[in-house]
Amino acid sequence: MIEFVNPLWLWGLVLVPIFILYQIFVQNKKRVRFIHSRFDIFQLITKRSSWLSYLPLILRSLVLISLLVALARPRIVHEEERIIGHGIDIMISLDVSGSMRAVDFQPVNRLEAAKKVARYFVEKRKNDRIGMVVFAGKAFTRCPLTLDYNILMNTIDNIDFPQHFDGTAIGMGLATAVARLKDSDAESKVIILVTDGMNNTGEIDPLTAAQLAATYGIKVYPIAIGTYGPVDFPVQTPVGIRYQKVEIGFDMDTLEETARITGTGRAWHAEDTQEFEQIIDEIDALEASEYEIEHYYHHEELFFLFLLIAFGLLLLELILRLIIMWELP
Questions:
Q1: In the beta sheet, which residues pair with residue 223?
Q2: CB under 8 Å to 130, separation ≥6 — which residues?
Q3: 170: Cα separation from own chain's centroid
Q4: Spatial CB neighbours of 91, under 8 Å, sequence gap ≥ 6
Q5: Domain boundaries along the sequence of the chain
Q6: pLDDT tens across 210-228, in order?
Q7: CB proximity list for 55: less than 8 A, separation 6 or greater
Q8: How far is CA 308 from CA 9, 60, 74, 260, in A?
Q9: How far apart are CA 172 and CA 133, in angstroms?
Q10: Strands 290-301 and 240-247
Q11: What is the pLDDT of residues 116-170, one digit of tens each?
């Protein structure tokens, strides 16, 4: 953004057209006439095209404009902001086991719904570091804590079912998220645990991982997703994918105990995408960041540039008059 420190000088630009008209209609009539015996030679020397005769006037007008702009003192204003306060460090621990293929959630299946809601959650946050852990039979960090939400969004978009390590290691998914948060110096550290099953593999069970989280002051918000009873599940057959009814259970008691141990008080259960988003909204409200934005400015002065332009134009006019147009002093 450009501003002028002394904008009143810009009113002088109104006088530039008056100066031009004065030079054309008044000053030109006062030119000295020469009487010379060889007027044809003199005329040849001073011959010039009609547009060239006005070039000095154009340059002089540009000099005036540049000087007036310089006196108005233009400068570029650079606005920056400083964040005062603190954000929250958040790890999303997401179940990507085979049971997440169930199609009782929109738009495609449970995993795609969870990815959609994860993106929805990230879009609502500001100035919080967020990371991503996924787990099936094993747990992996897909994205460490970051403020670069574009990278995080790309990571979420690329999450898919693992080719190996099937199973549901909820404890390992939680413990891996704890490992990413334990050394954080944030005032609030949070794990959002999303699963649709029961812990059936892994070296660490969920309650042990919950005790570990509590030791480091990390709060865990467990969310179970999925409907009760049989759900449609895709099965690969020789003639393509067919759907059959499968009952997938989830361990709400363990999730409730995990919440109790880590101080969040309760676990949530979502039976569709809309309810899932409402739960995320509730958690988002519970974990509000505390920060203020302070704006400050620094300026880049431009008046010296316009002074240089004026000097250059004035020099060009002098060269034009004395050398190119052969104008007599």
A1: 194, 268
A2: 89, 90, 91, 92, 122, 145, 146, 149, 152
A3: 33
A4: 130, 131, 132, 133, 145, 177, 180, 181, 190, 191, 192
A5: 2-78+296-324, 88-288
A6: 999 999 999 999 999 999 8
A7: 320
A8: 18, 14, 14, 72
A9: 10
A10: unpaired
A11: 999 999 999 988 999 999 999 999 999 999 999 999 999 999 999 998 878 999 9
What distance in Å separates the CA atoms of residue 108 and residue 159, rounded to the nearest whole number?
14
| DSSP E strand boundaries for 15-168 | 74-86, 89-95, 129-135, 139-146
**β 2-4/74-86 pair status:** antiparallel
β-bridge partners, 222? 193
- Cβ atoms 225, 270 nearer than 8 A: yes
**Structure tokens that stand for 107 in this block:** 């738009």
Higher pLDDT, 84 or 254: 254
Q: What are the residues whose beta carbons fall under 8 Å from the beta carbon of 305, sequence distance 6 or more?
A: none
End-to-end CA distance of the chain: 45
Asked if residue 17 has a cis previous peptide bond (ω within 30° of 0), the answer is no
Are 277 and 116 spatial neighbours (Cβ–Cβ below 8 Å)? no
Distance, in Å, from the CA atom of 10 to the CA atom of 308, rounded to the nearest integer, reads 18
Residue pair 105/99 in contact (Cβ under 8 Å)? The answer is no
C-alpha dist (Å) from residue 166 to 48, 113, 278: 89, 20, 29
> How confident is the model at residue 329, as a pLDDT?
46
Distance CA 254, CA 317 (A): 87
Q: Pick left, alpha or beta for residue 105 (phi over 0 → left; psi -120 to 50 → alpha; otherwise beta).
A: beta
- pLDDT tens profile 51-60: 566 787 888 8
CATH number belonging to domain 88-288:
3.40.50.410
The residue whose two tokens read 């105990």 is 257
Tell me the C-alpha to C-alpha distance, in Å, between residue 85 and each of 186, 290, 291.
11, 6, 4
